[in-house]
Every structure is written in C-alpha cells, then in structure tokens.
C-alpha cells in the first residue's frame, strides 16, 4: 500500500486514457476522478467523479480546491504542446499533489539524438525539464518511457506490416528494440502508485518499461508462424530513410518526416530499453508475443 488514495486522471477519455481509467477503477485503494474539457463529448462510468476544466489557472484552481488529490496522471493528447500540461503541473504542485505523471509514454527523449530526430516531441522533453525544476521533497514526478505501443500499433498502423497485401517493410540490420502493450502501461501506472517502495524508487525519474524485446526478424517470423502467411519483405535503408525524412521535415511535410521515428527506434539500439527497464520493480508480467499476435493480428488478416 502507499499514501496515494485520491487520483486525478486528465485525458481519461483518450486512447490510453480509457484503458488506464478502467485499470484504476479495478483497484480498491484508489478514489478516482477524471478531468475533462467543458465541451468534450466524452462520457465516463457513473462511479467516476467528473471534473470539468478549460485548463486555465483559474479553472484548475477551482478543481484542485474541490478535492485534495494525492496523484495526477496526465494522459493528454500530445499535440496540445506543453502549456496545458504546465498549467496542470503548477496547479498540482500548489495544491500539494505528491506524484505527477506527465503524458510522456514514448521515445527516450533523455537521449539528445532521439530528441533531435523526433523534434516534434520536444514539448514532452520540456515538461520533464520543468518537472525537474519543480521537484521537491513533497512534489515528485515519474515519466513512463514505453517506446511504441505494440497492441495499439498492430491494430492502427500495422507496425511495418501491410497485413492485407502481405508485405513487411524491413529496415537494414536486425537491431533489438522494445515495445509496450497498453495493458502493461496501465498496470505499471497502478502498481507504481499503489506501493510505497515503488513510489519511492520511481520518484523524479524517467521509468522505462516494455512488454516485448524484438528485432524485426523476430517479429516477422513470429507473425508468419502465427498467421501461416508469407510476407514479401521490402528492404529499406535506414540512412536513406533518415535523409528523405529530414528533407520532408525541412519542407514542413510531417507525414514524410515520420520516418525519423523509425530511425530513432532502430539506430544504435536507441529503442531498446531492456537493460534499463523497471519491469521487475513494477511487478509487470512477461509478455507473450505469440498470444498477442494471435489476439491482435489474426482478426485483421
Ligand atoms: N508510443 C506510442 O506508440 C503512443 C501511441 C499513442 C499515444 N501515445 C502517447 O500517449 C499519450 C496519450 O495519447 P492518446 O492517444 O491516448 O491521446 P488522445 O486520445 O489523442 O487524447 C487524450 C485526451 O486528451 C484530451 N485533449 C485532447 N485535446 C486537448 C486539448 N487541446 N486540451 C486539453 N485536452 C485535450 C481529450 O480529453 P477530453 O475530451 O476528456 O478533454 C482526449 O480524450 C500521449 O502522450 C501520446 O503521445 C504514445
């Protein structure tokens, strides 16, 4: 058990938010509230306290004077920039919140090269810098670094597979990289906040987690085994991907620039968190790759 009882989740209606809210509601220790915008059309289970805010300092002040929260979990959309989250952090610190979890959940932006490749994520890095400025004996933070969401990625963008056309884009080399299921993230959040030792050991840190350690070869052979299908492999040069994506970025084409995220994942094993992850500390279960592929790939084939 930990001292965290009252938890406020911002962005609980989103992709990561809905699963996180469901996981928090399963744990008796927590009294769960959600923060949502006044004009949001999203709905929440009846058992949840719903608080509305436009994220202005005044409106957040009213929210935080209505309840005394122990922890705030931000699962806000990444495109909001850092100002909304900064306001949430300021209100949290002023109100005596003990642990703030920012909406990070992605690349290792502590690595300057990764940050320079994925420059559109700089608001997330700035938020961690801001939390470092504000941290104190009573106000602490933890940022979960997850790499790509695996189950969500398989269902939403195919994770380098075109499942219908039976094609697989293979970047040169066979670099290890880690990926994380949404279910692993929600468990990590709950386990981190519900246990006093875990709370202590994760204070004021980027906390790395993962569900699977992969290489693209391992992933392809597991997919072919589970599906019984054969995929045509399209070989791609990482150097060429980086060159083209940098050109796209310079011309403002953000879709083309997304190749830089691949470079940040595969170059120099930047996307492999297996040696620095806190899975054991957080009591996270081992991932079962074949079971995940059966569950998420077979229905879309
Ligand atoms: N590593 C990966 O592969 C991966 C994949 C997906 C997401 N992520 C990360 O996970 C985090 C959550 O992403 P998500 O996809 O779950 O977010 P999302 O579904 O796009 O949005 C989450 C919530 O943010 C709130 N929101 C949206 N626009 C806002 C604004 N302008 N001001 C204030 N609130 C706003 C909305 O809540 P209300 O309508 O209730 O106000 C929304 O439901 C982000 O940090 C994202 O980068 C990582």
Automatic annotation (TrEMBL):
InterPro entries xrefs: NAD(P)-bd_dom_sf, NmrA-like, NmrA/Isoflavone_reductase-like, PCBER-like
Molecular function per GO: oxidoreductase activity
NmrA-like domain location: 5-244
Alphabetic keyword roster: NADP, Oxidoreductase
Domain of life of the source: Eukaryota
Record's protein name: NmrA-like domain-containing protein
Xref: Pfam families: NmrA
Species of the source: Crepidotus variabilis
């Amino acid at each position: 058990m930990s001292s965290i009882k009252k938890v406020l989740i911002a962005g609980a209606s989103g992709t990561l938010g809905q699963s996180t809210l469901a996981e928090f509601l399963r744990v008796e220790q927590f009294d769960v509230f959600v923060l949502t915008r006044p004009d949001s059309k999203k709905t929440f289970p009846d058992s949840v306290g719903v608080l509305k805010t436009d994220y202005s300092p005044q409106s957040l002040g009213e929210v935080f004077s209505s309840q005394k929260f122990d922890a705030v979990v931000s699962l806000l959309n990444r495109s909001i920039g850092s100002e909304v989250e900064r306001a949430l952090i300021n209100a949290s610190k002023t109100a005596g919140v003990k642990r703030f979890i920012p909406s990070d959940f992605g690349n290792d932006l502590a690595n300057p090269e990764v940050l320079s490749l994925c420059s559109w994520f700089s608001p997330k890095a700035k938020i961690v810098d801001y939390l470092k400025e504000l941290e104190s004996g009573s106000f602490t933070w933890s940022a979960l670094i997850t790499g790509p969401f695996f189950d969500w990625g398989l269902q939403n963008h195919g994770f380098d597979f075109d499942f219908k056309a039976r094609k697989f884009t293979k970047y040169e080399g066979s670099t290890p990289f880690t990926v994380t299921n949404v279910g692993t993230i929600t468990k990590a959040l709950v386990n981190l906040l519900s246990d006093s030792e875990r709370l202590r050991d994760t204070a004021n840190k980027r906390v790395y987690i993962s569900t699977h350690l992969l290489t693209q070869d391992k992933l392809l052979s597991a997919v072919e085994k589970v599906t019984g299908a054969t995929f045509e492999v399209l070989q791609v040069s990482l150097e060429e991907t980086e060159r083209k994506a940098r050109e796209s970025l310079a011309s403002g084409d953000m879709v083309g620039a997304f190749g830089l995220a691949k470079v940040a994942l595969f170059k120099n094993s930047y996307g492999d968190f297996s040696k620095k992850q806190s899975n054991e500390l957080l009591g996270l279960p081992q991932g079962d790759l074949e079971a995940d592929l059966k569950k998420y790939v077979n229905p879309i084939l």
